[in-house]
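Known limitations

C-alpha cells in this collection are predictions and should be treated as such. Users comparing against experimental data should check residue numbering before alignment. To illustrate the layout, the record for Replication protein is reproduced below. The input appears on top and the generated C-alpha cells appear beneath it.
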Amino acid sequence: MNKTIIDYLSFSGSPLLLERCKEMAKQRFTLSQAPNVFESQIPLAVASRENTKIRYFAENLAQVLGCNEMENFANRDLYYASLDKKLVECDMEIATDCTFNECYQQLISNIGIDMLDVLCHFEVESFVELLNEEITYKDNHWTLERRGGFSGYSHSALLLCNGSQAGLVAWGAANFGFYVSFSGSGCSAIKMDVLHKALKQMPYVKLTRVDVAYDDLQGAITVPYLREQYENG
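Generated C-alpha cells:
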C-alpha cells in the first residue's frame, strides 16, 4: 500500500486596497497628502480605537480621498471597491528617486498602517471562519492563539486545531498582507480539494510552499532508489 500526501502547505495574500498600493508603488506613485488620523494614547481612546478600527480605517481614508459614506453602499465590499477607485483618482506624485518598497511604505503610512493591519487581520479571521465551516473535517475546531510578529509580519498567531498547533497565521500591511501555513497535522485535518477550490476563488492569493510526501508502506521503493532518482533530476 502506498499513497501521496501533502505534508505542509502555505499561502499568502493581500486585501484589495493593499494590492492597489503595490501596483501604484511599482509605478513609483506616492500620496501627496496624508489623513488626519486620531492617535490619542488615553486608555479609553485606545480601547475605543481597537473596537472600531475597521470603521475608522474606512472613514479616515474616505475623508482623505473624498469618498461617499458607507451607508450609501449596499455592502462593505462595494464600499471598499469605491475606496479603491478613489485611491487611484486622488492627488498623486511620482517619486522617481524612491524604490518600490519605499513608495509602498510611504503609501500605507499615509493611509494608516494600524488600520490596514486590521484589514489584513480581517482577511485572516474570515479564512479561519471558512476553515471551520467548510474546509476542515467534521468535529474539528480551529482557533487562533495570538503571539508576536513573524518573518516580517507585524502580527501572528498559532493556528490551533482542537487545541493543538496545526499551523501559523501572520498579517501586516508593511509585509503586503497576510500569510497562512498548515503543518503536517494541519494538512491531515483539512479537505485539500475544498481548500484548493477556496484558494482559487480568493483574489490576490498565491501558494508559497507545498511539500508532497510519498508513503511507500510496502517498502517497494527504497531510500537509495529515491536518492538516485533525485540525483538524476
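For this record: The longest helix spans residues 113-135. The chain has nine helices and eight strands. Please report discrepancies through the issue tracker.
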